[in-house]
Amino acid sequence: MAESAIIVQDVCFGWAGGETVLKSCSLTVPKGEFWMLLGTNGSGKSTLLRLLAGLLRPQSGEIKIAQPAGFVFQNPDHQLVMPTVGADVAFGLVEENLPLLQVRQRVEEALAAVNLWALQRRPIYALSGGQKQRVAIAGAIARRCEVLLLDEPTALLDPDSQLDLVAQVRRLVNSQGITALWVTHRLDELDYCDGAFLLERGFVVDRGDPKRLKQRLMQVQEII
Ligand SMILES: Nc1ncnc2c1ncn2[C@@H]1O[C@H](COP(=O)(O)OP(=O)(O)OP(=O)(O)O)[C@@H](O)[C@H]1O
Ligand SMILES: [Mg+2]
Questions:
Q1: Of 20, 21, 76, 147, which sits most exposed with the smallest number of CB within 10 A?
Q2: Is 0.90 topped by the overall pTM?
Q3: Is residue 162 in some structural domain?
């Protein structure tokens, strides 16, 4: 069996005072693949991603995830903190205490990987939504992340930038061997991934071929 970058085994989690959100939830993402996580509103997708990012702890069960892991939020304005593109990507490297030259190299490489090399000095406020998401992804690449966790990164983008972003992540997974887990509601994005999970009632009810899952969910949408 291929090596796994993410293993979730029988994870249970409930918010304080709330219902149990994840009930014996299990999934595995093979290393170097691009998988998507689907499910209705409130099914626990964001909660699961927060558990994977280590922002929350499971009440029971086990999570194993290759490190370092990077998180990309739905709204990039909640994530980008520095005034310019280059400074923002460099900011994520502060903890590593690298020599300045190496920081510069990593920032340039990461921005080149998301086709933003020319915008290094651009103020963040002067970027489009899709460009902001690519800066957030560059931050993870600069930190040499093994895994990218993306929570509806295209939710605030127009349809063209949406498909640009998903195609970009597809290329990064192919070229850099990164593993990506991408939460979405948009079925057209399934065309870009290697596999998908369907989360319902706190556990994974279906998994595998994205084409088959897309068919299944399109039929459900038609009925509704
Ligand atoms: N910070 C919180 N405190 C308490 N309950 C929460 C919190 N965040 C989410 N929940 C609850 O946990 C459940 C799962 O929420 P979650 O955000 O994980 O769903 P989701 O699948 O990401 O939904 P969506 O598709 O709307 O983003 C919901 O019932 C929600 O109300
Ligand atoms: Mg969510």
A1: 20
A2: yes
A3: no
Structure tokens at 185: 């509601």
Distances (CA, A) of 12 to 31, 35, 44, 61, 96: 24, 21, 11, 6, 33
Other beta carbons less than 10 A from residue 77's beta carbon: 12
Instruction: Note down the domain range covering 191.
Output: 1-67+180-224
Instruction: Determine the distance separating the centroid of ligand 1 and the alpha carbon of 109, expressed in angstroms.
Output: 36
CA atoms of 51 and 60, how far apart (whole Å): 12
Q: Is the distance from the beta carbon of residue 45 to the nearest atom of ligand 1 less than 6 Å?
A: yes
What spacing in Å lies between the alpha carbon of 221 and ligand 2's midpoint? 19
Q: Identify the residue whose tokens are 């192919």.
A: 174
The CB of 42 under 6 Å from ligand 1? The reply is yes
Distance CA 38, CA 23 (A): 16
Count of domains forming the chain: 1
Closest ligand 1 atom to 47 CA: 18
Residues in contact with 42: Cβ distance below 8 Å, sequence separation at least 6, in sequence order:
none
Tell me which residue has its CA closest to atom 6 in ligand 1. Answer: 15
Q: Is the CB of 99 under 6 A from ligand 1?
A: no
pLDDT digits (tens, 9 = 90+) for 114-166: 999 999 999 999 999 999 999 999 999 999 999 999 999 999 899 989 999 99
CATH of the domain at 218: 3.40.50.300
- What pLDDT is recorded for position 19? 87
Q: Compute, in degrees rounded to 10, the torsion defined by CA atoms 63, 67, 70, 71.
A: 10
Cβ of 25 less than 6 Å from ligand 1: no
What is the token pair recorded at 97? 């205490």
